[in-house]
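When time allows, look over one protein, given below as sequence and tokens. The question is which stretches look regular and which look disordered:
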Amino acid sequence: MKKAKLFSRGVATLGLTLALAACGGGDKGGSTADSGSTDGGKDTAALTAVIITDVGGVDDKSFNQSAWEGMQEWGKKHDIPEGVGGYTYIQSGDAADYATNIDSGVSQGFQNIFGIGYLLGDSIEAAAGQNPDTNFTIVDSVIEGADNVASATFKDNEAAYLAGYAAAYTTQTDKVGFVGGEEGIVIGRFQAGFEQGVADAAEELGKDISVDVKYAASFADAAKGKALAAAMYQSGIDVIFHASGATGAGVFQEAKDLNSMGESDKVWVIGVDSDQSSEGVYTTKDGKEDNCVLASTLKGVGAAVQDICDRALDGKFPGGEHLVYGLTDGGVDLTEGQLSDEAKAAVDGAKEKVIAGDVEVPEEPAK
């Protein structure tokens, strides 16, 4: 897979600078550190891992897919087979599947179970209480007081802040949009960072740039995403940042449809969680290939999955710990995409300010 070009160090380095305590968790009868057979210092009881997706699915070109690709890389690195007795994923069709799928992972003997997305938080917490000798990880949420649960969150607001700069330095209409999936703490971070980035960039530019915010109330409704994008573009918005999982497929499709007709100026989409440039390819009215993905925020979900699996394999599963990944350690980032040189320089400057602590990006949208 082609790697996205970043403004600086990539998300694959995330977690290397984090100091994590080695806590409990492990197979039946003891902790990971002192149970099961070992091979060269590795805990063979921790060789099995399963991802439980949220409703976006493992092929969402975003959050879940990043997690699965990370686990695949981990399996290949350690010569672990795909499937039961190695690593795999279980896809959730709707929220009612979460608890059942987690229980299925436990019953199949997987030692490390990952809940991908905050929507799985309650189900992971319940399963962890019932299965104290299994390692659980919740991504994008925090579960406290459980020694067999690791929590991994990301400073999405920092990556979204850079997306705000990218949008502000690209818009020709001084109108940009944000499409979220379901309202909540996590997507609120994306919204807050984006709005602040647009505001700070607009001040630098001496412009008044508006941000229209809409929520689809779903991470798996492409039709709703397309409808929201259509209304936004029709209102004069020319750049939309989506943080909506598979709903974003509709946002991309609307942008491609409009650009293919060529009846107005080009409109753009900013992708989320992984390099989504492949989602923006379209054919222009005169038959040429073009792309409407301006840039994409990156979230090192796959790298975090690898990091936690490696720690479990070394007998150091970070149970009871809250791992936080941001711009400073490469946990989030922004691709250069099709940004102009001016926009690239502005984004780079904004990133340096965040890392230096000169700018504190809000985590919640303004009331």
About this structure: The longest strand covers residues 293-299. Residues 39 and 313 are 10 Å apart (CA to CA).
